[in-house]
Amino acid sequence: MAQVEPTPEIVAGELYDDAIFTGSYTCPTTTDPNCPFTCSTLEACDACGCFVIDEGGGPWGPAMDVIMCLLPILFLLGVTLKPNPLPTTVSLPAAAVMMFLIRVMYLGSNPTLCSGAIISGFHEALSPLSIMFGAIVLFETMEATLCMPFMMREMKALTEGHIIAELMLIFSFAYMIEGASGFGTPVALGAPMLASLGHPKFGSVVTLLVMNTFATVWGAAGTPIWFGFGNIDLSQDEFLEISFKGGVCLTICAYLILPVLVLRILCPFNIIRQNFIFVILSLSSVMIPVLGMSFVSYEFPSLLGGMIGCIVSAGLIRFRLGLKEYKKEDAAEDRHMKISTTAAQSLVQSIAKTREAGNEDNDFNEELEALAKANDDEEANGGTESDDQNKEDQNEEAEDKPTTSENEKNEQPDTNTTRSFNQSFTPHLHQDSRMDHDENLADLSDVEQALGPRKSGGAYYRELIGRTSPLWGTVLLLIVTRVQQIGLKALLVMREPYFQINFGTYGIFRLSASLVFQLLDILTHPDLSWKYELLYVPFIIPFMLMSFVTMALYRKDLQASPKSILSTCLGRVKKPAVALMGALALVQLMIKQGSAAPADIIGANLSQALKEGWIVFAAVIGTLGSFFSGSTTISNLTFGGIQKIAAETVGTSYTSMLALQAVGASAGNGVCLNNIISACTVVGLNISEGKIIAQTFKPVLAVCLTATVVMLAFFFRF
């Protein structure tokens, strides 16, 4: 680095006329424009006299700055978690407006920057909305082509309705999807599958949100690490340190928290305890490979761990290793051999409606028969009996005739002598009557009758491969388009060549040959831009592509037209679109730009005030970043630099602090509003997001606390 000789009276923190200014940093001792980028540590900055220009903060001091910047988040939490919560279609846009006013009226931020951040946020909402729409189309297509009922029948045949087996298999599947895709895809795929297996929609969404907290440290091909911390000048070895330290934390968290808090969302602890050996074996088949891979790679732990877990868990279930029979007192709700649906038009829904209509007809026929019998009796007695006597006779008949529930109760087999898989579980999660009021359940026997007899030999395996192709095809496409070594990813995200249109002060629009949409210099601000990689975001590839392929393969089985499917899906994303646009506008207002950003103000002031005590809150800060941004990667981008500076300030390992940030950000996916809105939309659950956060909060907090203790015990040194 070429430097000019410093003047004798140079004082760090004083800005000279010929100093270089780049963003929020200035180097008063040199005219080299690259100087600010060479200061990667506090010592290097002190050596050359570089310092940060304090662009952020209001007139009332650091403490009030933190309070004011947190005010929209506190408002959002308050109105979301209160007994009668505001819908997110109101609360999220309101929080964004509040943040805008705080920035321009208290922090004195550039109004062009703030207005441009809102526009950028509206555009950013396209990514989660398109992923959500694609996932809904895929599941609606699988239902309409009878692929989903087929898959659920085969999974029930494998698990025999065993709740623990189903939960651990879905855990492994979601872990694999996180490693292949990210973007909230594991919840968008896993929650509908769990719900389709007959579990309550509410519990399915909560379970998948919490399960996903154990996988997103690495995300899709390590993106939260190499990209999330890419702006703070780390080496490959330091990336690996963050990876394995995060791996140790998450592995310990998984063994301590998954059986005790996560599985209990849908299953009582008595059943978990009876099948504890299976839970540990299945969990180990995921987490041990994850831990091992985290020492040598920060790109593939989630993907490979999930793959191995799926294969091993399926084998454990097939040979019933560690799976035990339910006890009689633990089995109260008969859902184990039922199949549900998240689709608006499906075979399960048709069966449920037909059975409901049949029950109504039977009740009506019974009433007609009773009325006819009463009339016959009256005629036989010459019509001389009084109305009171008729009523008395009817009451006596009613007393002599056992009720339907009593008949069913008498016909119940002795559960002490039957295989326990013929019983089900009592959901641990309290179910509000409004949570699954529109739930459709169909008996497995009815589904099998509608699908026809199971084929045998080669015909069965051909049908198995074909009917499951929407899922394994989706996973395969995600892998080949995400793994950089394959080479397709680079082609899908190319920004050149492109054509360009200048939309005046709104921004410069570009569209590349790889269909990458960009909007640069929004409102003429050089730091505001947006991009949307149409072929890389999991929308066209794989969701829409596999949906259309499935429609073509099973067009004869279609229960609804493609137009009807697409129309249904569009209707389901209209309401979440408003909430997500408000959420992403709030995110952009929080993180733009540099030291003037509210997120930066919160982190910098708290780290300076707390000193060593910052370590206690480091994971929670990562969780906060994911809560409002909806992404582990964005949380790391936002707070990674602050976490590193805080570690250097207290004299401890910054890779340990960054690993704690990554684990906290991963845990934050359990309370992330973007993921909650997407998951509820995909499964068709109309409920307040606050009710879900109230259930996911405890496991998320447990992950943060456990990770902090592990880091203090094994890695932090002062």
Textual characterization of the structure:
This protein is mainly α and 718 residues long. The chain has helices spanning 35-38, 42-48, 62-81, 88-107, 111-124, 126-144, 147-159, 163-180, 185-196, 201-211, 223-226, 236-262, 269-274, 276-294, 301-318, 347-380, 387-400, 404-410, 444-451, 457-467, 469-482, 488-492, 543-553, 562-591, 598-610, 614-629, 632-650, 654-667, 673-683, 689-714, and strands at residues 20-22, 25-27, 51-52, 338-340, 441-443, 498-502, 508-512, 516-520, 530-533. The strands form three sheets. The chain has a four-stranded antiparallel β-sheet with strand order 6-7-8-9. Strands 1-2-3 form a three-stranded antiparallel β-sheet. Strands 4-5 form a two-stranded antiparallel sheet. Strand 1 and strand 2 form a beta hairpin. Helix 25 (598-610) packs parallel to helix 27. The longest helix is centred in the middle third of the chain and has 34 residues, at 347-380. The radius of gyration is 29 Å and the shape is globular.
Largest sheet geometry: 4 strands, antiparallel
Q: Which structural class is indicated by helix and strand composition? A: mainly alpha
Q: How far is the N terminus from the C terminus?
A: 32 Å
Shape call: globular
What's the total number of strands?
9
Specify Rg, calculated over alpha carbons.
Answer: 29 Å
* Low-confidence spans: 1-25, 382-435
Q: So how many helices?
A: 30
- The portion of residues assigned to helices is 55-70%
**Strand order within the widest beta sheet:** 6-7-8-9
Taken as a percent bin, the fraction of beta residues is under 5%
